[in-house]
Task: structure prediction
Amino acid sequence: MIDPHIERRAAMAAHLADRGVLTDPAWRQVVEKVPRHVFLPDTVWGLDVDAGDGKLAPVPRSHTNWSRWAYDDVSVITQVDDGTPVLPDGRGERATSSASQPSLVVAMLQALDVTVGMDVLEIGTATGYNCALLCEHLGPEHVTSIEIDQSLARQARANLAAAGYGPQLVVGDGTQGAPGRAPFDRVLATVAARDIPGAWISQTRPGGVIVTPWATGFATTNLLRLIVEEGDVAHGRVVGDAPFMWLRDQRVPAGDWRDFIDEQAAGSVEYRTTINPMPVCDADPSGGLALTVGALVPHLNTVRYHAADDSGEATIYLFDRRGSWALVEYVPGDEDGFEAHRFGPRDLCAEIDRAHRLWEAAGAPERSCLGVTVTTTGARRLWVDSPSNPVLKASGGARTGGARLHGVREVDRRAPSSASD
Ligand SMILES: C[S@@+](CC[C@H](N)C(=O)[O-])C[C@H]1O[C@@H](n2cnc3c(N)ncnc32)[C@H](O)[C@@H]1O
Result:
């Protein structure tokens, strides 16, 4: 009898090829060969659609969704809340590991531009599926993979063995790389970094490639492809979107915006500003402005409430989840300035204004024209078209000009993306 999973793998590969995602015939063969269902635990997790409260409910192997998800182009959540669901009813709040979405997996593997004989380091073993694809393509002796969570790492080892692969698996913090196995030709992170760890650069051979989800914390998580040069430096560009969960030690503090903004806070300052944050809030999440603001204004989150009438007025909250926030009462066309209120060491309004100006001074580049240079010491520089053309410094100042709004409706929220890999 034909194993039905073989047909389902072939169908998944065909679907990805038809969509124009899986373009490399060698990777197609690999996807057709590696059984994804072998890498899924008996219990996976899905959004609790019945409760409709955004929590994550267990989905056992016996459920039709379990087997459907194994070969659909979806990410499958395989762990919540670091292995201990936090809700008393056994449901979870935060996805902490997953089998990534197959289309994203192949896009990243293809971006890695790997050829047989190369040594690859993967960060974030999780189920081991991606690692198995690398093993199938390169041979397990060329593959090292790091997972920070002990129980996940143990399960990944068993999954890989069941599928017939024995790569080098490391249990530890992937931000340190795997010095004992370096240098590598390629580093592939399957977990999002805000700050690119220096070890990834120093452990990659000059000319080598690092592919990683790069989450600035604002708007879309970018898929970054860096080329490493002599001198502990790497340059690269954003080659797509890659919504991933964060590296454990770079995670964003959990909580609603209300957990981070206290309008009654002693020491908060009320003032007027001519800075109009609306263009930044309106920026295309995958565009050049959002990337520039995200890169230059660390940890930025925005939430906006539009007036329930058609005045166009809005209350805009900016906050960093680390003690600084600002709110601006936006009134369309008000040239005299807006009422504003801020708290904390950072002036987030001024920061987004500066980033907006820098982006405009650089010619308002699309995201595809922007690049980034990172060093092993953690320095980071944004550039346009080439590393020699950094996003220039703009002079200070502000634009347009407010009234306080209550009884309004929330229209959007720009919070760090996560857990959709
Ligand atoms: C989205 S999953 C990776 C998907 C996986 N590669 C696959 O084949 O499906 C991200 C994983 O990264 C792990 N992780 C988070 N921070 C890490 C770190 N600092 N070092 C190593 N692994 C980490 C998480 O525990 C999680 O299992």
About this structure: The radius of gyration is 23 Å. The CA atoms of residues 17 and 23 lie 6 Å apart. The first strand starts at residue 43 and ends at 47. Residues 393-420 have pLDDT under 50 and may be disordered.
